[in-house]
Amino acid sequence: MSKKRFAILFDLRRCNGCYACQTACKAEHGIPLGVFRIRVNTFEYGKYPDIKRAFIPTICAQAGKDSPMLKSCRDGSIVLDENGIVRKNRERPSYNPGEIEKIIRSDPYGGAFVHPYEKSIDFCDFCATTRNIGAGEPPACVTTCNTEAIYFGNISDPGSAISRYIRKWDGSIWKGERLHVVRMKAREVPDVNVYYIGLTPEMEAVIEGHKQFDPTFLEVWRWQEAGR
Amino acid sequence: MSRKFNRRDFLKSSAAMTGSLLFPLNAAALPGPGGDEKRDTGVEHIPSMCLNCTTSCGILVRVKNGRAVKIDGNPLDPNVRGTVCAKGQAALNQLYDPDRITCPLKRVGKRGEHKWKRISWDEALGEIAGRLIRLKEAGKEEEFVFHHGRSKLGSLKKRFCRAYGTPNDLNHTSICSNNLRRGLNSLWGKGIDFDSSDFANTKYILNFGSNFFECHQGGHYISKRAMEGIIENEAKLVTFDIRLSNTAAKSDEWHPLFPGSDGAIALAMGNTILSEGLHDEQFIETWTTTTVEELKAAYRDFTPEWAAKISDVPAADIRRLAKEFAAAAPRCIAFLNRGAHAHSNGFYTARAVYTLNALTGNIGMPGGFQYSIKGKHKEWGIRLNEPQPFPRKPKKKSKVAFPPEYPYSWVKKVGGNNFLYWKNAREKVSVYMGYCIDAAYTWPEGPTITKEVFLDEDIIPFHVAIDAFYSEQTALADIILPDGTFLEKYDHDQWDAYDYVPYVGLRQPVVKPLGEARDVRDILHELAHRIGHGMEKYFPWKDTEAYMKEVFANIPPDEKGVGGFERMKRDGVYVQEDFPANIHPAYRGKKGYEFFKWELPPEKIKDTFSETITLKNGKKVEVLKRKGKKGIAGVIRNGKAYHGFHRMKTGLFEIYQEDIVKAGENARNLDGSKLDGIYSALPTYYPIPGHQEVRVDDEKFILTTFKVNVHTQSRTANQKWLSEIWHYNPMWINREAGKRLRLREGDEVIVTTWRHPYRAFGDKAIPADGSRVGDLRVRVHLTDAIHPKVIAISNHCGHWEYGRTATAMAGKGDIPYRNFTFAKPDRDVDENIWWSEAKGGNGAGYAPNSIMQINPDPVSGQQGWFDNIATIRKV
Fold it and tell me: Chain B closest CA to A176's CA: distance in Å?
């Protein structure tokens, strides 16, 4: 079997923007207000009465060995663990604002932030610090998803939950449309481990605009702006 | 059914490894959390039930060194299947709210002046008991009012009020779900007040004003199952709503409609189904109290063209959707919630929507509209024990609890009017005790009339609040008793079982109550003993734990011999796994569908006698009864004995409901004169006064409210992870309508609401003279996601009390009892409420209820929230 590569998939057909994943993450990791490891984005496009509202959870792209953050990190404060997950080195965290800023700037997804109290870098690590990911225990966002929109596992293992789900739906016809499993912004960094079903150009625009971690985009008056 | 590997499976497989398949939730069999915490030995997982909304999901709380650190779903709860929503996750925030009330407080300044001193429990309960004893000795028990919101106290509140002798055991159902419940139980029977339809197996969902992906009682369970139906069966979801809710957004079709016209659309769909011969004749003739002929006559004038004129939904769409719905039968569901029924014509809307299921014969069918079964219904086999003796109904009467204007209201469920009644001196109040209620914020005209009543010591001479938080109503109390949060106390609870898996659940303390806070059940118990005068004999147990032990005494032991309360404490839920064979061995292998069509086994017919009922419409039905028993034992159809709709007196689905007409004959104004109303045995429709005029008046709008996915009405705004998501609620207005008024995003306007211009019929105490209700200054949000004649301001926001998180006053104001709190500070609340105005944010939003008129449905008493006639003026 090839090397372990953990990945997450969001089936946007199933996502109804309930924020359970975002809140579960805050609880699991004690993430302060104003910053997020996972953010549910709500945005709107179209004109009355053909108005659409869509939801897309966004997290750190977890690009494995290709991770721009990993590459830009010179002080060992970010490591690739035995499961192929990029995570902060809890033994050697960096508190150097210059170094942290450099790492955060290197990230094209905007998924990392400075923890306002710990003053170190923070981003999604698939709950590698709190759960037995290697043994198959899924992250907190996955286990609490009511509509089963989030799938996780070792994508190199064809028997994992994520691999089975991709096999079931990729290329199939659903409600008259062909479904595609796509990776978030795969053009820029090939090894991204965040997958979507039902990703539309409007949704990609949200990510391109780096709006996905700005807390003010939670407010209703910005939903339509996010969708443009 | 798709299955991913989730925490539930993980727990199950871990349990299997320990050889304990049948007890996957035995706390000892749980895996410790992974990673760094794995080395921590002080971690337990305690099962309980959530109460961060009414749905009561089974939860597993991770407790580390005496502190609750994470909430997950309880995989043993058959409804929940291991997940919780954002509110469930954030419930930790209410437990550790730094602004909690943690010791008894007594007012020292004027009422509402926020001046408090700390007192002992002994002093607090002594003073309350003293006043209640004096009232009782004077024979004025009815002047004690116990007023509760979504309390989950079960029979204990009834026990307390009855034991004291007051009929004023008041609740909040009529500002909540009364029309839905009364509509359904008028068709299906007492106790069946929510459907738990088979969403996972359906092909078609016709949704009138329910936002089940965001709220809805039981919405968490529906979301899960409806999404399964949508993905796996490609089920079609059609939503009628004035606003694009997240449910409407996830629908295949969203049809914006004029408020309060849902009933007309449902009737027009019925008209299409009947006139095109798409109805299920056999079901209607055999299982309902009406006939196809009678229905055809009753529905004749409700044409799609008629409904289109009222609703703005094109007749062609109504016809098309009705045909699609009927074509999907029996795998189709028509249902509703507040958007459709919380109108002053909503009772008949509920009846019209639910009746669609009967017309197409999908009731009880796989993928269809289902019986709501609760684990504790005795016919399903789990009998919770009610400790004896239980007090009898008091002799005293109350015209606030039972207004003569609403004889068809579900018992004691007219609530939106009560502060107005007290203001009008309908009845005297001496002691008001509020529990789990914030009427000054949540009631219609709450910030005005309710607040005014509380501030008037002539109307409410003594006000006790049992509350964990300093709510708008609690701030107006004389004595505050600190309640525990739901993570610190006991309840027996469950929601209606989806998938026909009946269960009962236990809510139990996962940590000790903070500071001097106490479980409300302990407070009522001690009060009963202090009041005495015979009241104490109805509270014979030692403490709440002992009470719960008795309640769950009937829970059978597992094969390890663990049963009763101990089993509940360990698992959180007890599931009736062998349902329905537990009812009768002949039912082994059945699932629960079409229960009414099950033939009665011979033993169940024994000792019955038959009786023929003739309804006023001429239909005759033979029912089986048992001597000395209320209700029926079964119903005879085509010569055979069936369970039937066994909670109805006819054993049938009562589309023709003659009790409504009978109640109408008894409806009286307060002065005893006969009250005019529309009391129809069959589903009908009447327009809301003044609304059709609004449709053609460019200056006028209908003001409505809505709920979002991360909040309850009033009890979640203090939870930082939720208020971070939804704290600012500008008024939604359609972009084109806004442009016409020259409004831009974020502009400030004054919204003025006006009482209905006339009263068509009903309660004379409710003003309907076209006068101004009030003004509210709000900012606007221009959006394409709302009907052009509607404006909407969400609930949840605009708190002026409830602590710093709710009011977004971080770093500015503070709670007035800071010196007497045991709660620990929270750095987020102290420093980091980024939406506060002090930090340049949009602040805590607006509370719209001051301009939401008191507006009961004349039949049921349900508050019509969404009927407000409004005008807008730019500031």
Answer: 10
Backbone torsions φ then ψ of B750, nearest 5 degrees: -110, 120
Domain boundaries, chain B: 105-175+400-488, 178-359, 691-874
Give the C-alpha separation, B192 to B342, whole Å.
19
CB contact under 8 A, B224 and A146: yes
Question: Is the CATH number 1.10.10.60 carried by domain B105-175+400-488?
Answer: no
- Tell me which chain B residue has its CA closest to the CA of residue A130: B35
Strand partners, A153: A7
**A159 within domain boundaries:** yes
Contact yes or no for B785 and A44 at CB 8 A: yes
Split at pLDDT 50, 70, 90, the class of B410 is: confident
In a domain, A76, yes or no: yes
> CATH code at A108?
3.30.70.20
Distance from CA of B25 to the nearest CA of A (A): 16
Of B725, B734, B746, which has the smallest distance from its Cβ to A221's Cβ? B746
ipTM of the complex: 0.97
Predicted confidence at residue B810, as pLDDT, reads: 65
B400 burial (CB, 10 Å; 0-12 / 13-18 / 19+) is buried
Handedness of CA B642, B645, B648, B654 (dihedral sign): negative
| pLDDT beyond 70 at B605 | yes
The boundaries of the domain holding residue A165 are 6-226
Q: Let me know: does A197 contact A179? Beta carbons within 8 Å.
A: yes
More confident residue, B381 or B840: B840
- B526's enclosing H/E stretch is helix B520-531
> What's the CATH code, domain B691-874?
2.40.40.20
Residue B20 scores a pLDDT above 90: no
The answer to whether residue A172 sits within a structural domain is yes
Residue A117 Cα, gap to closest chain B Cα (Å): 9
Q: Do A138 and B10 touch (CB under 8 A)?
A: yes
Contact state of A138 with B842 under an 8 Å Cβ cutoff? no
Which of B721, B727, B787 is the best mutation test for A, with the most CBs of A within 10 A? B721
Beta-carbon separation of B89 and A215 below 8 A: no
Residue B36 has pLDDT above 60, yes or no: no
- Bridge partner list, A7: A153
Q: How far is A161 from chain B (nearest CA, A)?
A: 5
DSSP state of B514: S
DSSP string, B143-191: GEEEEESS---THHHHHHHHHHT-S-EE-SGGGTTHHHHHHHHHHH-TT
- The residue of chain A with its CA nearest to that of B31 is A132
CA distance B223 to B230: 10
| pLDDT (tens digit per residue) in B483-495 | 999 999 999 999 9
Overall residue count recorded for chain B in this entry: 875
Tell me whether residue A1 is in a domain. no
Q: Is B308 left (phi over 0), alpha (psi -120 to 50) or beta?
A: alpha
Look at chain A and report how many structural domains it folds into: 1
Topology classification of domain B178-359: Dimethylsulfoxide Reductase; domain 2 (3.40.228)
